[in-house]
């Protein structure tokens, strides 16, 4: 997949992140290359996914 982005002026105010997943990206600005990959060598039936834990609030 080829994806073309034309960046214009950017202005970022406050950012509030409630939580992140095990595979996530948070990006502000430019990136020349982002490479994504995934690999599982464990059978799906042995994978245990627990509840998500939110990040601590910083006020």
From TrEMBL:
Domain of life the protein comes from: Bacteria
Protein name, UniProt field: Spore gernimation protein GerPD
Species whose genome carries this gene: Paenibacillus psychroresistens
The organism's taxonomic lineage, starting at the top: Bacteria, Bacillati, Bacillota, Bacilli, Bacillales
């Amino acid at each position: 997949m080829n994806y073309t982005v034309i960046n214009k002026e950017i202005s970022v105010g406050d950012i509030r992140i409630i939580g992140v997943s095990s595979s996530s990206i948070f990006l502000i600005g430019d990136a020349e290359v982002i490479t994504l990959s995934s690999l599982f060598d464990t059978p799906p039936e042995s994978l245990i996914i627990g509840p998500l834990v939110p990040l601590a609030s910083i006020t």
